[in-house]
């Protein structure tokens, strides 16, 4: 089979789920023998948090970003200029992983620079700003083929927007994420003072979508019985503004008598370097993923691969691939339910690491995801060839 020239577009150099997906997919497609280029907007001096084994084009962001709308506009413009400079029409596949890159491709398609593009919808956000909402809509409406990382979102795209999407799932690197400690484990514990009783980990920063306030309440409740427990909130490199929600959480932590800082009851690490993420999962006694809305929840698989039990929201998409043997379920709208699930997970009840977890992880590999993408790409190209002849 002939080699494909594939352009994967991702919105940020920072470690977000969609960006991780892009880089893992790029590496796996390259391993399959395809010619992959990752396009990513970057301010002067910025580089990707992890370099894939393929070509990377940094699209220079030229304008200062006064607010979210200006930031998005500057990144759309950066994508557009870089794609024109690198002759976007020469790629077999142009694949946007987000609304920002999707808008750049939609614009170029309307202008006749390219024949079409594909778009993966990881999840959709709710925007009060009409321009942001319109950009999000255009990025999937103008795509020639939409992909989703879960059946949940594929159904959502069909029922809510009349778009036929194809599910192409995530993967997990079980060589990178494992229960075997390395030099980073002890260093990470010392660096952040992760030295108390059981460690509850949340990855993705402080966001309303991540339901961090409810987790904080549940942790405070749980801590009455486990006084040395620590809540570690890691990550948070988002392009969206979560300052108001973060302020509410910090205020509520004070009201609950929870101190924030290194060695304290709540440790907020901020974005971490990529090399220490496997150690972070290993340092935790439980991962809490009680989000109100997710595209897939990639960190769930990474935690399980690291030997760490998971508490997950009892909602889709988690219910697609998890069950009572691979996680402890919690109602994300019920603080008591979250606290009880954390207790079950910390008590070693509910997660079968001997049989169920290995079977789950075997279902998800980046190699399989990449091959599925290639199959979708080839069907897309064959269909386009028929339409143009």
TrEMBL record:
Gene3D superfamilies: Glycogen Phosphorylase B. Residues 16-176 form the Glycosyltransferase subfamily 4-like N-terminal domain. Coiled coil: none annotated. The keyword Transferase applies. The keyword Transferase applies. It holds the Pfam family Glyco_transf_4. Keywords: Transferase. This is MSMEG_0565 family glycosyltransferase. It comes from Paraburkholderia dipogonis. The lineage of its organism: Bacteria, Pseudomonadati, Pseudomonadota, Betaproteobacteria, Burkholderiales.
């Amino acid at each position: 089979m002939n080699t494909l020239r594939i352009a994967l577009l991702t919105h940020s150099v920072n470690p977000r789920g969609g960006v991780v997906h892009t880089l893992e997919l790029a590496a796996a497609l390259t391993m399959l023998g395809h010619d992959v280029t990752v396009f990513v907007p970057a301010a002067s001096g910025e580089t990707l948090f992890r370099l894939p084994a393929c070509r990377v084009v940094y699209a220079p962001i030229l304008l200062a970003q006064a607010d979210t709308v200006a930031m998005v506009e500057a990144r759309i413009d950066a994508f557009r200029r870089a794609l024109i400079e690198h002759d976007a029409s020469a790629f077999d596949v142009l694949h946007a992983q987000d609304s920002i890159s999707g808008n750049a491709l939609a614009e170029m398609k309307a202008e006749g620079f390219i024949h079409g593009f594909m778009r993966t919808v990881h999840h959709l956000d709710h925007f009060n700003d009409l321009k942001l909402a319109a950009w999000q809509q255009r990025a999937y409406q103008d795509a020639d083929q939409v992909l989703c990382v879960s059946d949940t979102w594929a159904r959502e795209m069909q029922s809510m927007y009349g778009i036929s999407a194809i599910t192409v799932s995530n993967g997990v690197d079980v060589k990178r994420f494992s229960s075997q400690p390395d030099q980073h484990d002890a260093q990470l514990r010392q660096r952040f003072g992760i030295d108390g009783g059981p460690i509850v980990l949340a990855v993705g920063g402080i966001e309303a979508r991540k339901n961090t306030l409810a987790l904080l309440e549940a942790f405070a409740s749980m801590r009455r019985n486990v006084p040395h427990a620590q809540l570690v909130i890691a990550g948070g490199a988002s392009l969206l503004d979560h300052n108001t929600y973060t302020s509410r959480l910090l205020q509520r932590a004070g009201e609950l008598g929870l101190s924030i800082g290194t060695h304290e009851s709540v440790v907020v690490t901020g974005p971490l370097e990529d090399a220490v993420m496997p150690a972070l999962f290993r340092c935790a006694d439980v991962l809490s993923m009680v989000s109100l809305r997710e595209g897939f929840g990639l960190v769930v698989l990474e935690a399980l691969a690291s030997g760490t039990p998971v508490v997950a929201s009892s909602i889709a998409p988690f219910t697609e691939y998890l069950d009572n043997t691979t996680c402890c379920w919690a109602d994300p709208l019920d603080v008591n339910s979250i606290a009880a699930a954390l207790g079950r997970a910390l008590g070693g009840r509910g997660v079968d690491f001997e049989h169920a977890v290995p079977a789950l992880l075997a279902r998800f590999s980046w190699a399989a995801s990449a091959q599925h993408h290639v199959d979708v790409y080839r069907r897309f190209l064959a269909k386009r060839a028929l339409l143009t002849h």
